[in-house]
Amino acid sequence: MPAVLNTNAASLYASKNLQSAQSKMAQSVERLSSGLRVNRAKDDSAGLGIANALTSQINSANQGIRNLNDGISMVQTAEGAIAAAQEMGQRILTLATQGASGTLGNDQRVSIQSEMRQLITAIDSISSRTKFSGNSLLSQAGNATGTAFTLQVSNNTSDTVTLAVDAFKNIGVGTTAGGGTILSGDKVFGAQSLTGATSGQASKLINAINGGDNASGTLVPTGGTSAQAATAFQYIQSMASDYITNLGTQRSLLGAYQNQIEFTVSNVTDLSANLAAAKSNVVDTDYATETAALTKGQILQQAATAMLAQANQMPNVILSLLK
Hints:
Number of domains: 2
Shape: rod-shaped
Radius of gyration: 40 Å
Number of helices: 7
CATH class of the largest domain: Mainly Alpha
Order of helices and strands: HHHEEEEHHHH
CATH architecture of the largest domain: Up-down Bundle
């Protein structure tokens, strides 16, 4: 290398290496202080794109878990209401069995019928008050089909858990209980027609309690003989048994949905954890590697600084030539 004064090439090289060491050390400091390997797009543009896609999946999966847990709470609310209705249905069946006994007179059967009516009223109240986030849970028509509620699991629009209307049928005597006409009357067994009601629904049961019937469909007239009254109570027994069975079927379906949702929650939780681990591999700082890089950068910075000072002294040799 020639001895020149205007251009100190050694100093330029040392300065360049010093800048490079300082830049790498600053990058290591940034990564160690933020905990992120990718702090801006220039650090790893492809990795940043992957991380953003993974973040979308993770956020939607976590929200899906919350949606599913809300679904579990909703199903439990509906099941609790049906369980209460089942207990009342069992009481109605017990009363009907009591009324079917030939040892009772008309007055005793009037009292039994009065309690049955109050129980049906209570069941109907349960059906109307059972709501979740403002949604009526037991208001689906008994003859309806399709989906009652849909739980969104992820950002994939087709990734859902659907709950059919069969699990949320009206357990009361409202008009959505299958279109049954609700009969009224103060008599023990009025000569009234049973229209629109379906066996196993509360509307059919209350019609039987109010109107009376026997297994062949012949109405029992008001003030009939004890044998006729007992036969009417036997018909109520049949209707109560069908109603209890239907409630059990509906409750079992809710239980199946709860199990399905809980398993889905477990799966989505695992998915979220695995996606988070994958994102960590892309964007998080490896402190063992980065502290080593920082230490290397500090040594190179010190060495480059020392060499820059030496390089700046090298032109002094020219002065000795000029003496």
